[in-house]
Amino acid sequence: MKLDVISFDGQSAGSIELSDAVFGLEPRPDLIARMIRWQLAKRRAGTHAVKNRADIARTGAKMYKQKGTGGARHGSKRAPQFVGGGRAFGPQVRSHEHDLNKKVKALALRHALSAKAKDGAIVVWENAQLDAPKTKVLKAGFDKTGITSALIIDGGALQENFALAARNIPKVDVLPVEGVNVYDILRREKLVLTRSAVDALEARLK
């Protein structure tokens, strides 16, 4: 797959050939869904909790005698059916993580990249660098190229000027290639890769 390479403000900078082994697969929604579920489960804090009847600070003595009152039989006031009692079957502190094979993770990333390529939503830049951290300059370039929602991936460490300028723009995320992930790729309309990011992804996923 051949794509044109441009600068962030739309100036032509040649072309690049994308590997079919990474960007040319037929996307599998089941793999992508599994990966997103794994990512979202992994980042859940799992700190939700309620007090069950053993955690309630209230007497455990029997409310009234068993027989002769004409009422239902009850024991402790800490039981869930009473106001101020414990909660039955409520959430407890736990981890929501589950295992996912390393090969499945890599394959899901290939399929996410291929899904973007199939939709024509991949843009390749020569680099992601600015002379000064000016959001206005970067936004003007985005307006020229029609970018309103994008994940920008650079091949190495992010240039500080570019990262500072981009962080003020809504729906624009910037990541180094080490941080590329399926969820962030799919939550933005465009995937913007630098030349070095393309090379790094192909070396990592081939």
From TrEMBL:
Gene3D superfamilies: 3.40.1370.10. The keyword Cell inner membrane does not apply. It comes from the Bacteria. One of its GO terms (molecular function) is structural constituent of ribosome. Residues 64-84 are annotated as: Disordered. InterPro entries: Ribosomal_uL4, Ribosomal_uL4-like, Ribosomal_uL4_dom_sf. The keyword 4Fe-4S does not apply. It holds the Pfam family Ribosomal_L4. Keywords: Ribonucleoprotein, Ribosomal protein, RNA-binding, rRNA-binding. GO terms for biological process: translation. One of its GO terms (cellular component) is ribonucleoprotein complex. Belongs to the universal ribosomal protein uL4 family. Forms part of the polypeptide exit tunnel. NCBIfam families: rplD_bact (TIGR03953). Part of the 50S ribosomal subunit. This is Large ribosomal subunit protein uL4. The gene is rplD.
